[in-house]
Amino acid sequence: MTKYQVMRRALVLIGIVFLVTACKPKTREFQMRHGQVVQTDASKKTVVIRHNDIPGFMPGMTMEYKIKDPQALADLQRGDVIDARVVVMKDGSDFWVDNVHVTDSSARTAGERAARMLKPGQAIPDIELVNQDGKSFHLSDFKGKALLVTFIYTRCPLPEFCPALGSLFARVHESLAKTPVAYARTHLLTISFDPKHDTPDVLRTYGLGYLHGDAAGFAQWTFAAPAADELKKLAEAFGLVYVEEADQISHSINIVLIGPDGRVVKYWSDTNAKDLEAAIRAASSD
Q1: Residue 13's pLDDT band (boundaries 50, 70, 90)?
Q2: 118 by DSSP, 3-state: which?
Q3: In the chain, what are the domains?
């Protein structure tokens, strides 16, 4: 074999090695199913997604992802349910989503729903619900008291959503209980938007978890669900957005304060126990 043949073979081998190295994947790919768009930011080219477990990558959570396709980002709206591919650099230096497909855009009506929701000062509808003891009641039954309301479903798997709302209300409840006059003039109401599953027995067990097993607490904090045909009316009145998908429900976070006169005082989507307590105390003394 001549010197040139040796050099040629060496170059061929180097080329093969280079090609194999170049073709070796530098990323890992994972499949995201039924994620819900929480927020988009065109300037940062990012999308915040609330998603279930992504097998092999991470547990269910809400987090921000880069999205490199500007058109795909522009096509997304808050509330959209999507499937996507999550691409992660093997060295962990970067990750993003692509191959985004909207599977449910029904939450895009949220803007229309927000326009129809009750404004502060407007009277609430007299919706019928069933509490944790299986007893029917109406929202009007709380007239004369300041009423703090939020919306959950008991199977919610994300700790920063329904469980966080339960813990928030528990702190308000415990603090109000230290002042008998304020306790008597206020009421807390947790409403499930999953009436098919959240029966009175389920709600009672769920409520006792936040009341430390003391059923006496139900006298000031009610857990309830509307009839299925009243749920839409309830959602529209208070701007609640919920999207059923498989065995879970994506939803907005809504807290509303209703005054003793049965009129809306204020809404929150993000707050703390101290501010809620101050607001309900003030409303109860008006």
Answers
A1: very low
A2: coil
A3: 27-104 (2.40.50.320), 111-285 (3.40.30.10)
